[in-house]
Design a protein that fits this description.
Pfam families: LacI, Peripla_BP_3. The chain is of the alpha/beta class. Helices cover about 45% and strands about 15% of the residues.
Length: about 350
């Protein structure tokens, strides 16, 4: 079926069908309804390639992410998809599996296929990597990426402030030996969360030593860090993981060893993924409204595609969520551990 068939059944011109289906306002409501009814009767679907040629728009947004696995990316995509669907837009999604070279290939493959790009490039060297592969004329919004690419909007999270708030909570609860499971070394979010941990520890517990373990933002690295902490003497009285997935891996290691959380060791994470409230004990964490992060980025990109100027760097606030896992230390607040 073609647009001419729809016009014949609706008894209007081809131009009227085009205006009605594209949402233009200069079509009478009765005529618009007749066009829609004819299109539905004929099961007519606009030819995407032809529409793209005539409008120079693909009605598609590109999304390039470091991974698609895990609750964080699922929530992020949920927020992006809800906004895209509300605007009758499609998504073209690609993952580069944390590989900078594959990221470049994914960005190049999007050219000519999308009206704009949502890109999460968490590498510390992201500005250099993106400048080599991001088409300057293509509207783009960077998510959780280091600022520094001229003319490109960046939407991020207050990682440093969130980490500071968590350390403040753990110290206020009486914990003094606070270990930190860090994220990937080349990840900007991980750097900011580690910086927040260090700044808060120096300010609140100037005599305490840093206790940082390597991690990779996945359950396995949290599990490994948990076993390493169990072998320490003395053990920490609290563990702050740079994301919830590592915290859950650490929780499993403690459970395997019969170590009680929070009775023996307190535990906290970052992100507030949906699973965090359903484990036992429920996880104390820093809430990032992940779906809203995706939704805001999508809205900002759609505005750019429509001709609005690119926004500056903006930061999404975080929120401390206290649940059972952080507990209260056995030692009264203010009493230093040996």
């Amino acid at each position: 079926m073609t647009i001419k068939d729809v016009a014949r059944v609706a008894q209007v011109s081809v131009a009227t069908v085009s205006r009605a289906l594209n949402g233009h306002g200069n079509v009478a409501e009765e005529v618009r309804n007749r066009v829609f009814a004819a299109a539905q009767e004929l099961r007519y679907t606009p030819h995407a390639a032809a529409r793209s040629l005539s409008s120079r728009r693909t009605q598609t947004l590109g999304v390039v992410l470091p991974d698609l696995h895990g609750e964080f990316f699922s929530e992020l995509m949920r927020g992006i998809d809800q906004v895209a669907r509300s605007q009758h837009l499609h998504l073209l999604v690609s993952s580069y599996h944390g590989n900078p070279q594959e990221q470049g290939a994914a960005l190049r493959a999007m050219r000519g296929r999308v009206d704009g790009l949502l890109v999460m490039s968490p590498f510390v060297a992201a500005p250099t990597l993106l400048s080599e592969h991001l088409e300057p004329s293509l509207p783009a919004v960077l998510i959780n990426s280091q600022a520094g690419l001229d003319g490109t909007a960046v939407l991020g999270v207050d990682n440093h402030g969130g980490a500071v708030a968590m350390v403040e909570h753990l110290v206020a609860s009486g914990h003094r030996r606070i270990a930190f499971i860090a994220g990937p070394e080349d990840n900007f979010d991980a750097h900011e969360r580690l910086r927040g941990y260090r700044d808060a520890l120096r300010r609140l517990l100037p005599d305490a030593r840093e206790w940082v373990l390597p991690g990779d933002f996945d359950e396995a690295s949290g599990h490994r860090a948990g076993h390493e902490l169990l072998a320490a003497s003395p053990r920490p009285d609290a563990v702050f993981a740079a994301n919830d997935m590592m915290a859950l891996g650490c929780l499993f290691a403690f459970a395997q060893a019969g170590v009680k959380v929070p009775g023996d060791i307190a535990l906290a994470g970052f992100d507030d993924i949906p699973l965090a409230r359903y484990v036992h004990p429920a996880l104390t964490t820093i809430r990032v409204n992940i779906a809203e992060l995706g939704a805001r980025a999508a809205r900002q990109l759609i505005a750019q595609v429509a001709g609005e100027a690119a926004g500056d760097t903006s930061v999404l606030a975080t929120q401390l969520i206290v649940r059972e896992s952080s507990g209260t230390a056995h030692t009264p607040p203010g009493t230093p551990h040996s």
